[in-house]
């Protein structure tokens, strides 16, 4: 947030002005084969990513693999939370980067930093991540907004990302890396987005609010005495 | 649901007409000590229980342990989903059954089957469960709408329930035990409640709906040919 | 197998001549919510049960909960492996025992020992198991040919079975309890059924056969010298 | 706490006036073989039990198995936290109940409810627990203030306790069962004891206090405006 | 050890003078299907049981299921550690209690307490355990000197033992329950047997011996000064 | 599949026209020491690899380590699914790359991309993978079609692959990397191969087909009205 | 410890004379979202780091993210154990390195080796670690004195550190890397610090001391004879 | 084994003629803090390494950290299995490479490949491994013949090894990398060493031998007919 944050820090972090979000094959049929994260957490993380990207005006591109077949429809939250996202249909390609329209749509954003998530991580994220990296993009793979069919696949995918120079990251870190400072007008909505990806944070906020109210009420009571 | 289901089955199951739901100390401070279920799942399960009880008109009684102190406020979903629930304040008693008003409120419902959930399972559920069992009630303890501070505590609590004649049960089973038949007017809402306690069921329903639509569209297309 | 085994043992075991197999709601939609056993193992175990029951001529009754809806169709292996099984349609009842035709079909077998498996264990097995137990049957619940939506549900269900006098058992134990002796004509087919429920047993048999062949060949070679 | 709590509840709970705490073989050599709980948690739980028992004036009896040998000395916290505890030396008996002085010391307390913890759970707790149960005592086994040499041993021990009528319980539940009400003079110290057995509770209290102070300060600030 | 221990304790424990050890189907082929304990631990536990039984002169009966077939030979440690054990061949019966000679051999010992271990726990131990219990014996099932083909099977088996009145126990507890006192001539050998079932105990003893030597040497050094 | 896919994507992926599959020591004796993946899954993954390679005409080379000894015979599925595979016997070398005939057979394929799987991963895959990498090949190690004797070994092996520039991958990713597009004549058979490596995908397809049929039938019914 | 240790070793280790400790956002509200380490262990590890740094006179810098809000206050141990630590307030920046005062404070220490720990690891440690690395510092990230909101986040963070050239390390290794030799005046206090981060070490020391005393006493006794 | 194996393979593997084994601080006191591998497995792995190194005449150097203190004595197996090993005493240095005599002893072997194992992995192995790597040695760290005080430490250590160019390896892989071919005179003893590090291999061999004997006997029987 160069325009918000005067600091000279963050040179090693992603630049929010140069980033786009690619959501790859978050389809309900594929979800039923995911075993390294619960589907409930996966959907929540994808929703959180979609909300922060929408709030901070990152381009969002979605795509699906054979959505008329067993892979199923895209999770409906995507259309609800990011009506402005561009959907790119594919012609059967497993690797989104094999689809010319998809690559052109990415290039048209003018962004060089790509935040990718999808199902399966080892395939639908890995393949375009490797291709995009080879094409000169900075690539972040959001592993908990993605899903793999086994724990062993998940560990293997993480190792392959690291080996290939794709940066493995989690949803909460993406939000923070885009967020950068609480001194901004969107702070309240960002706080709410955190509670989607990290539900315990909601509990912490509820406890905090109540305790603050108790403190305030006790003070008022003491003052009256 | 005697009035819905003509069958002679279910004699060994809970009788929806004789049941009340007791929600004990679902407070945000206590949640932060729960380690045998995620807080997100715990809250979802409590919400699902609250919704099914409200839909099927079971009495609901809520209570809290020192909500002005560190234990924190009741989770706000309770008031939203069950505005008709009766809240019983306590005077510091750890065991709700030690509070006369609580016991009277339970007795006033006239129900002999008590479905209990709370935090901690080993304390806030266990103590009134044992007392209620001793007082002649049929008691069900919903272990995944409750929470304990360790996995070891959770296993121990389960063993103590079983040993004491308190029936251990999970949220999805309570819903089913109250639901009993899909041939009832509330079926659609009950299906929705299942997706709260079992989020994968939502994914299954989405895949199903899409595939049915594809089948319908293909049929229409074939018919036109 | 009184007719095979002259021994006086086994008085505490299930009597193969008095047993029937009930397969409850093994539907592909429900499978996608099962989290306490892999679906691959679950299906293998159900297939193994179906095969041993068919081989030893136990009555098999199958049923499904709303198979036209999201719960999905019965796993097709059932029809392949047990074409003689009786399928009982239901009218929306969650609890098969709530369906009169189901209860009558069970009673018509004349068997007093019921081996039950299904999805969810905590519901589709638990409810008829409790009702059947109350009606005087001996009930065995095959927990790994059944499935529950969480590990916590699975542990809870196991405790409730034990508390209620329903005997918890696993597929390999059911096969053995029906099998009883290797001195019977079906031994080779039973050995093959074991490899379905316990795939490592197949590996053991392959290693054994090869080593025996090596021993035989070496002997032949030595004899020639 | 009959003298504190006017309620008629708690009939199924342990009676603080009739209870004694037996701490069996909490020795540092044996600790090094414990694998079902971390030694840090085990020691913290034993300390918490010792503190609540001391605070509420329960008799405490300690003993050790061959403390001059590899089993090692008693954990020193016992002497620090409960200087009044009675130590009973043994003459090589594995089962404390085999030692006449130990049994006499227990009987001399006049209490009929025995809260036991020790290392190993499956031996040093199990044996006197079974003997005491047979001798007519009510016995509680505190499984997380005890330790077993494997997870499998731990599960097996829990099942044997339940089967034998010994009540399995955890440290936090013992504290609560003795505590019973926050309206008592010892409340602040009891709150502190909770933080020993459940360290997350300390964190909750710290967050609470800070938030209350913030609320109070903000109120003061608002009032000034 | 009535003849060693003058105490009146231990009434609820097994009586060493009335106990026999039954080792059922500890065969190397079956071992390869065991998944609830490592085979290394399983063999060590069986060896420890065999040694303590041999030392204290308990009758030992071994048997095998089709040792010429894939189930494989008995683990050779049995013959080494208990040359006096009686081996009962079977005629294909899965349940050892179905074999008349086996039952007669058990009865001939005159013992009423049977300590059983075997592979699979759910079958080779469960079946004779249930039959022996029904025939009036006291039965202990040593779950970690036995093995089951899955963790789910292991948990289920434990629940079925508890439900049936068979006492679930672990190897270390059996040794202790037979051992009873360190004031006996066999103490040193028993200490060595503990290190087989609980290898960490060996480490504790080694550290102890070294530290004691250091203490002795330092004292000697100080005395010289 | 350059000849199928017109796109310019996939530059960073394996080239199906330049790849060979090496299956190393998938022997039933070695399988019995594998502890990081179930043998059932391991065999299914090897079968899936073999089928996709056969379908897409990749050269397949198999080899075994001392198949007349305890290591046992190759899993028989290999010969069934890939009758055209070339088997290279070894003369006792642990590392297949130490065998000249093996290296020559690999070189004769003319392929520079080697997809390797075997048992143990840390040895039978690692050694030739390192040697082949050093010799200038692109090497992929399929970790879930391979097996290691412990979880710790599995993690260590993954780290060593990544460190050495060998690409760690899973079976489902290999299939996808070879598959590349659903718009090809082999699509139906490839879909079937997916169900072998990812059995939940079969369940998804069954649910899909049934739901589509329901949609079609309901449409037909509506049209008639 | 160049001034203590004459050896030429340790060239690849951190140089105690060039190191500073940065403690980032160890706040009680954030603690309640940590799921990859227990909060009790996390606090103990942070305390141990603080003590060793204080003892060996490393500069310590602390900071907090919005401590008046839900994130909560810094854990109070910091002020107790390191009263000399410099606290840098922030103006809402998530990344401490975005705060100019923080960077200046770091630079003013003149140290080029930064030992960082904080909550969340993936954010509050990762961001300044990456920035500091880019600015030419040697950076160590102490992963068990830090916390992440899921196990998946924890694994991902570890991979990203390794990929970025930040050295992942644990508390016990930091202590050892600073400690370097037992021949130094602070040895006794360092031994005590080990017991904070590795509580089992305390148990080992207690057993050792007792055994040494036994050895000494026995020697004395023997000498008297 | 250049002198045994004519092949040109193995260029990327360790060279047995250039390797030495360094065993660092395998002391019984430290063992009691190890939590990422069981002590039984750790000791077995160290014994297996010692045996293969002795058999193949690799130099072995052992050392200990303060063996008169709580860290305890070296495991006695070392002296039994490798009487020729050189023991280097230290003067309090945590890092063996800080001890000049140790470094000289290593250098005197003339070997450039160092196989290291020790307790703790993160310290006693890591520090000399990093120093030796910096000094130009090829370093292998045997992670399962080493031990760390937590699972988190273990994962972190593995990542740091990989990041630093130290090769992480397991005991079974070291044996194989030294073994290289079954066509050597030591084959039988090497097979026996495998059973120490991989106990399931022993079970496989026992099953194999028995089955081969059965095959031989059946052949003999058939021939007689």
From TrEMBL, chains A, B, C, D, E, F, G, H:
Location of the Isochorismatase-like domain: 19-172
TM segment ranges: none
Xref: InterPro entries: Hydrolase_YcaC-like, Isochorismatase-like_dom, Isochorismatase-like_sf
Protein name per the record: Nicotinamidase
Source taxon at top rank: Bacteria
